[in-house]
């Protein structure tokens, strides 16, 4: 992954760079918006990480300018502002995702992967297939190794989202945002309960588990036994 | 003491009042004088027509007799004026333009009634009413009548009255106004002295005024109300500071302990990982508290209101209920849902979603296994009634009024997880939606009723 990181705080920048280096990602770091905009226009990056509060310029304005100059690289915004209204403003400005500081590195990395690999889902993609798992988006039927699996609406939505991002870490927050549309975190194990029920139906009757738990981070859907 | 400012105010307002009253009195006097003149004019006209009648019925001789002019005298100017001064009237009879008898005078008279002011020497000036009566055979009578004595006296009386009023009332008025102002300023000064004392102990001292001035009493009552409200907010702030301190201190001290343990277990990766996990969880709790505070602040600021839309509340609640059903099942609570379909409301979907989640989380946290938890939505004419309740131990009466306060927890030891902001967020969401939130009394458990205005007209 080739990533542009726009972050003025040296500590946060070092933390992100070190984490990305461990995952063999190639990172270019800028500490101000002007240089970042030049780099973003000149090179092809997979993802841009943009801090919202930068010296001399609101990161939001920089994103607007980039989008206006036809830079389509996926952008994730980092911010200390946690409110929904700010999140909506960020997304409206042209950012693709929004992450509130402080965050776990795993959360950032999961979102980066989701953004970098994001292929626009074509309307005619009727069937999602991962290994022996098939999901038909018209009939909403789910088959594993030819056997039909009955799912509740939320379980179906979780699986559909996971199948769009196979072999990728999916965090609890991502599921809350994507499946429930929540911008807040309920205290209880809402996500765990539904994922656990999904697993009981999807994995229990079969030889290997397709949904893996990444401890302290989230879940991962894999199509093969050793994945 | 009357200050320079008050004296100036008293002088200005006293002067203005004085001038206004003087003008009013003068106008009133003029009106009365005019009325008197009208009366006299009327009588004069009647008198003239009497003379004309007399002339027709009894002849010219009789008229002369009436005016004691049988001797056919002619009064020269000074005699004429003396006669006018003594008798109050004067006559001159002309044939063509020749004076037959009566006054030979400069005084004029015209066919219409007319007032004029003339000088009567020592007698001073006098108001005269005059008129001309044309008779047959070229005869003409000029007649003058002095203003009625009584009326003239009244005139003088009014003038005197004005004079004395003008002389005496100004200082009296200024004094009275200054006195009233001094009295009011004394009460206000007492009030401001009390406020200085209140500043030292705002929670216990209140203002008290000994005055009958209702404005100052109202001011004092309003100040006391404001002080009560400030005290309440101050109390909230104190609770909040203590809450934040407590909610942060506990996880932070645990993190500190974990960091020390990490030093001790540097050689044992398994134990080290355990410490890191625990420390991360504690830190997540601190961050969660801050996120909730920021969110609460944003909701209270009302900035979500501009994004309000009309949406299907029943569908939202149904979706949330379906999401929570397995959570309640797994925690061995009975969850009963009853929703009237297609109830629309005007608001923020995300916020109302959080309101329902927070109340369901609350029910989950504060009820025992096998408890009943219910969620109901009913439709009223202008509102949607949402009820979320449980038959758990409920909230003690003494805590009921405070459960919506920030960081308030009935469980003082804060042994349970959570930060005491969930119900504060619920209240803030209700306030921005102008929804009525109430915790029902005398229930076996905790039952919350929320009445959300539907504004169905908007959805049409």
TrEMBL record, chain A:
Domain OmpR/PhoB-type: 125-223
Keyword DNA-binding assigned: yes
Keyword terms: DNA-binding, Phosphoprotein, Transcription, Transcription regulation, Two-component regulatory system
Superkingdom field: Bacteria
Location of the DNA-binding region in this protein: 125-223
Keyword Ribosomal protein among record annotations: no
CDD domains reported for this sequence: trans_reg_C (cd00383)
Molecular functions (GO terms): phosphorelay response regulator activity; transcription cis-regulatory region binding
Residues found modified as 4-aspartylphosphate: 51
Protein name: XRE family transcriptional regulator
SMART domains: REC (SM00448), Trans_reg_C (SM00862)
GO cellular component: cytosol; protein-DNA complex
Biological process according to GO: regulation of DNA-templated transcription
Domain Response regulatory: 2-116
PANTHER family from the UniProt entry: REGULATOR OF RPOS, TWO-COMPONENT RESPONSE REGULATOR
InterPro entries linked: CheY-like_superfamily (IPR011006), OmpR/PhoB-type_DNA-bd (IPR001867), Sig_transdc_resp-reg_receiver (IPR001789), WalR-like (IPR039420), WH-like_DNA-bd_sf (IPR036388)
From TrEMBL, chain B:
GO molecular function terms noted in the UniProt entry: phosphorelay sensor kinase activity
UniProt keyword terms in alphabetical order: Kinase, Membrane, Phosphoprotein, Transferase, Transmembrane, Transmembrane helix
InterPro entries the UniProt entry points to: HATPase_C_sf, HATPase_dom, His_kinase_dom, HisK_dim/P_dom, HisK_dim/P_sf, Sig_transdc_His_kin-like_C, TCS_sensor_his_kinase
PANTHER family associated with the record: HISTIDINE KINASE (PTHR45436:SF8), SENSOR HISTIDINE KINASE YKOH (PTHR45436)
Record-given protein name: histidine kinase
Catalyzed reactions per annotation: ATP + protein L-histidine = ADP + protein N-phospho-L-histidine
Superkingdom of origin: Bacteria
Subcellular location: Membrane
Species of the source: Pseudoalteromonas rubra
Principal subcellular localisation of the protein: membrane
PROSITE patterns: HIS_KIN
Lineage: Bacteria, Pseudomonadati, Pseudomonadota, Gammaproteobacteria, Alteromonadales
Chain ranges passing through the membrane: 161-180
GO cellular component: plasma membrane
E.C. no: 2.7.13.3
SUPFAM superfamilies associated with the record: ATPase domain of HSP90 chaperone/DNA topoisomerase II/histidine kinase (SSF55874), Homodimeric domain of signal transducing histidine kinase (SSF47384)
Residue ranges of every copy of the Histidine kinase domain listed in the record: 243-456
């Amino acid at each position: 992954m080739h990533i542009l990181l726009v972050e003025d705080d040296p500590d946060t920048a070092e933390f992100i760079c070190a984490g990305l280096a461990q995952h063999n990602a190639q990172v270019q770091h800028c500490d101000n918006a002007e240089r970042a905009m030049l780099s973003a226009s000149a090179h092809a990056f997979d993802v841009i990480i943009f801090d919202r509060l930068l010296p001399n310029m609101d990161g939001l304005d920089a994103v607007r300018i980039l989008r206006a100059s036809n830079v389509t690289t996926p952008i994730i915004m980092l911010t200390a502002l946690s409110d929904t209204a700010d999140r909506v403003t960020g997304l409206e400005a042209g950012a693709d995702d929004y992450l509130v500081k402080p965050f776990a590195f795993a959360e950032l990395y999961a979102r980066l992967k989701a953004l970098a690999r994001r292929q626009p889902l074509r309307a005619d993609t009727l069937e999602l297939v991962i290994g022996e798992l098939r999901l038909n988006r018209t009939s909403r039927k789910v088959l594993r190794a030819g056997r039909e699996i009955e799912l509740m609406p939320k379980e179906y939505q979780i699986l559909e989202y996971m199948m769009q991002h196979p072999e990728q870490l999916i965090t609890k927050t991502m599921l809350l945002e994507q499946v429930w549309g929540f911008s807040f975190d309920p205290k209880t194990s809402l996500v765990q309960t539904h994922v656990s029920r999904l697993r009981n139906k999807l994995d229990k009757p079969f030889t290997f588990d397709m949904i893996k738990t990444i401890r302290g981070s989230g879940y991962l859907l894999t199509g093969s036994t050793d994945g | 003491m009357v200050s320079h400012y008050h004296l100036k105010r008293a002088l200005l307002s006293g002067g203005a009042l004085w001038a206004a009253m003087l003008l009013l009195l003068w106008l009133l006097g003029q009106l009365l004088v005019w009325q008197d003149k009208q009366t006299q004019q009327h009588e004069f006209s009647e008198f003239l027509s009497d003379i004309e009648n007399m002339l027709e019925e009894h002849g010219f001789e009789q008229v002369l007799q009436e005016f004691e002019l049988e001797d056919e005298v002619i009064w020269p100017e000074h005699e004429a004026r003396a006669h006018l001064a003594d008798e109050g009237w004067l006559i001159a009879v002309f044939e063509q333009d020749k004076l037959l008898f009566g006054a030979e005078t400069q005084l004029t008279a015209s066919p219409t009634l007319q007032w004029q002011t003339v000088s009567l020497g020592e007698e001073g000036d006098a108001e005269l009413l005059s008129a001309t009566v044309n008779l047959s055979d070229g005869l003409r009578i000029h007649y003058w009548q002095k203003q009625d004595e009584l009326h003239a006296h009244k005139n003088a009386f009014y003038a005197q009255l004005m004079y004395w009023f003008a002389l005496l009332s100004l200082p009296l008025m200024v004094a009275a106004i200054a006195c009233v102002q001094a009295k009011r300023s004394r009460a206000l000064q007492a009030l401001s002295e009390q406020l200085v004392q209140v500043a030292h102990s705002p929670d216990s001292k209140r203002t008290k005024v000994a005055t009958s001035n209702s404005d100052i009493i109202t001011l004092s009552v309003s100040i006391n109300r404001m002080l009560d409200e400030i005290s309440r907010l101050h109390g909230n702030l104190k609770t909040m500071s203590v809450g934040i301190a407590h909610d942060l201190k506990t996880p932070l001290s645990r993190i500190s302990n974990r960091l020390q343990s990490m030093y001790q277990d540097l050689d044992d990766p398994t134990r080290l990982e355990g410490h890191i996990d625990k420390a991360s969880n504690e830190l997540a709790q601190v961050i969660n508290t801050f996120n909730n505070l920021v969110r609460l602040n944003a909701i209270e600021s009302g900035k979500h209101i501009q994004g309000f839309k009309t949406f299907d509340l029943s569908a939202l609640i149904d979706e949330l209920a379906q999401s929570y059903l397995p959570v309640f099942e797994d925690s061995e609570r009975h969850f009963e849902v009853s929703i009237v379909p297609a109830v629309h409301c005007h608001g923020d979907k995300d916020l109302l979603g959080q309101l329902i989640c927070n109340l369901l989380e609350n029910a989950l946290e504060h009820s025992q296994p096998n408890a009943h938890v219910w969620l109901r939505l009913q439709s009223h004419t202008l509102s949607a009634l949402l009820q979320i309740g449980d038959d758990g131990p409920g909230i003690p009466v003494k805590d009921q009024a405070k459960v919506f306060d920030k960081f308030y927890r009935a469980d003082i030891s804060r042994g349970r997880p959570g930060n005491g902001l969930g119900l504060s967020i619920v209240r803030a969401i209700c306030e921005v939606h102008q929804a009525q939130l109430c915790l029902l009394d005398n229930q076996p458990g905790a039952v919350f009723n929320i009445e959300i205005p539907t504004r169905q007209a908007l959805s049409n």
